[in-house]
From TrEMBL:
InterPro entries: Nitroreductase, Nitroreductase-like. Transmembrane segments: none annotated. Residues 8-71 form the Nitroreductase domain. One of its GO terms (molecular function) is oxidoreductase activity. Belongs to the nitroreductase family. Keywords: Oxidoreductase. Pfam families: Nitroreductase. This is Nitroreductase. It comes from Thermacetogenium phaeum (strain ATCC BAA-254 / DSM 26808 / PB).
Length: 172
C-alpha cells in the first residue's frame, strides 16, 4: 500500500470485531512506531501491549476515552528521566509528547496496511493507568491506542481546503 492511500484511508475506529489481534501484528505495529521521528533522536518510548481481558478492563476503568473494550491496546509510554537527561526541559515538556504522537501516527498508518483499525486515546487518568500497568515512576503513559479489526469504517470527515491552511513566505 502506498503512504498516500494509508493516510486517506486511516480512520478512528471505535467498533471492532471480537477477533483477537495476533501478537506478531502488534509487534509489526511497534516496529513501525520505533521508526518514527524522535526529537534529538532520544527515542524515549516504551510500549505496553495489552490483550488480556482482565487487564484491558482494568485500563478501561480509568480511560473514559475508551468507549469499547478493543481486542488489543498499545500504550505508548515516555521515559521522562531519559527525556530530561538528554533533552533538558524541552525534551521533557515538548519533545516527549511529540515523540509519542509521531509513534502513534506510524502505528495508525501501519495498521491500515495490516487491515487493522486504531483509535488514539488521551482521555485517561495517567497515574491510575501507570499503576495498573505497574510502570516505574519515570515511565509515563502518554497515549492508548485501541487496536482491532474494524466492524465498520466511518465516512471520511470533511477537511479544510489546503488554501485555507497554507501561506507562502509568511502569514496571509
Amino acid at each position: 500500500m502506498d503512504v498516500r492511500r494509508a493516510i486517506f484511508e486511516r480512520r478512528s475506529i471505535r467498533s471492532f470485531h471480537d477477533r483477537p489481534v495476533d501478537k506478531e501484528l502488534l509487534i509489526k505495529l511497534v516496529e513501525a512506531a520505533i521508526w518514527a521521528p524522535s526529537g534529538s533522536n532520544i527515542q524515549p518510548w516504551h510500549f505496553i501491549a495489552v490483550s488480556c481481558e482482565e487487564q484491558k478492563a482494568r485500563v478501561k476503568a480509568f480511560a473514559p476515552g475508551l468507549t469499547v473494550l478493543p481486542p488489543a491496546m498499545l500504550v505508548i509510554c515516555t521515559d521522562m528521566d531519559l527525556c530530561e537527561r538528554k533533552g533538558g526541559r524541552l525534551g521533557r515538556d515538548v519533545l516527549s509528547l511529540m515523540d509519542a504522537a509521531f509513534a502513534a501516527e506510524n502505528i495508525n498508518l501501519m495498521a491500515v496496511e495490516l487491515g487493522l483499525g486504531t483509535c488514539v486515546i488521551r482521555s485517561f487518568n495517567q497515574a491510575a493507568v501507570q499503576e495498573v500497568l505497574r510502570l516505574p515512576r519515570h515511565l509515563v503513559p502518554q497515549l492508548i491506542i485501541s487496536v482491532g479489526y474494524p466492524k465498520k469504517i466511518p465516512v471520511r470527515p470533511r477537511r479544510r481546503d489546503v488554501a485555507e491552511v497554507l501561506s507562502w513566505e509568511g502569514y496571509g
